[in-house]
Write a structure and sequence with these properties.
The chain has 245 residues and is an alpha+beta fold. The chain is built from eight helices and ten strands.
């Protein structure tokens, strides 16, 4: 039986928390998509063992309805669009909330420990397989449209300035803004049925691990101006700047 990892090894196996997701050993920039490409043969040989272990960990932490592990825990080749490297990744899709973040971090850590120990006695090598737990809204198609509310648009210029000030006050987003927009934005195909949302895109240099405090500050500001019902979405997306220039 393999010996338990040392404390120093355990510290290296901690999940990295981004916005509505936790990953290991790195937090790759979205969008990431699972391709139809077959897994490498040496990973196919142990696929069932890896999925079984991952699903046991997810069930233990209880952040998916019992039985959904078979549907929402998978292992596939994941690629950064459009031409990024393809990396075998255990992907868990689960509902997100601020309270669930530490639970996800524990689960990702346990999966990383398993994969590290498993690599000592199987066909895989350390680092062959990545792990990510992610909210469904970061994977689903998104629909957006303009907001047909003149009064809100009159107030938007002032609110947009305050959002910009918040972004410039944190190292993770200072000088890295691509776009700020106000839309009806979400996963519903009827765009007008989606909630009003402040959409923020930033350049790839923005450190996603720092977004939690940025978004918390923006939410506090919105409450102060009576916009507490407006959602916030932030993502890496350099392309939007060209559209709005």
């Amino acid at each position: 039986m393999a010996s338990p990892p040392s404390t120093s090894t355990n510290s290296e196996l901690r999940g990295i928390s981004g916005w509505k997701r936790v990953a290991w050993p790195e937090l790759r920039i979205l969008p990431l998509k699972v391709t139809s490409e077959a897994l490498p043969v040496h990973i196919q040989q142990v696929l069932k063992d890896i999925l079984r272990a991952a699903r046991v960990i997810v069930e233990k932490h209880g952040f998916l309805p019992k039985g959904d592990e078979e549907i929402h825990v998978n292992l596939g080749m994941r690629r950064q669009e459009p031409y990024g490297p393809r990396i075998p990744t255990v992907v868990v899709v689960a509902p997100w909330s601020p309270e669930i973040k530490p639970v996800w971090e524990k689960a990702v850590h346990e999966m990383a420990v398993f994969l590290t120990e498993f690599s000592k006695t199987s066909s895989i090598s350390q680092g062959d397989i990545h792990v990510e737990i992610i909210a469904p809204e970061l994977k689903q198609p998104i629909y957006y449209t303009s907001i047909d509310e003149p009064d809100r648009y009159e107030a938007w210029d002032k609110v947009r300035g305050k959002v910009h000030d918040c972004l410039e006050s944190f190292e993770a987003t200072k000088g890295r803004l691509s776009t700020i927009a106000l839309w009806k934005y979400g996963v519903l195909s009827d765009g007008q049925a989606n909630p009003p949302t402040i959409y923020i895109s930033v350049f790839n240099e923005s450190d996603e691990t720092g977004w939690y405090e940025v978004i918390a500050a923006i939410k506090n500001m919105l409450e102060g101006v009576g916009w507490n019902h407006v959602q916030i979405h932030m993502e890496h997306n350099e392309g939007w700047q060209e559209i709005f220039d």
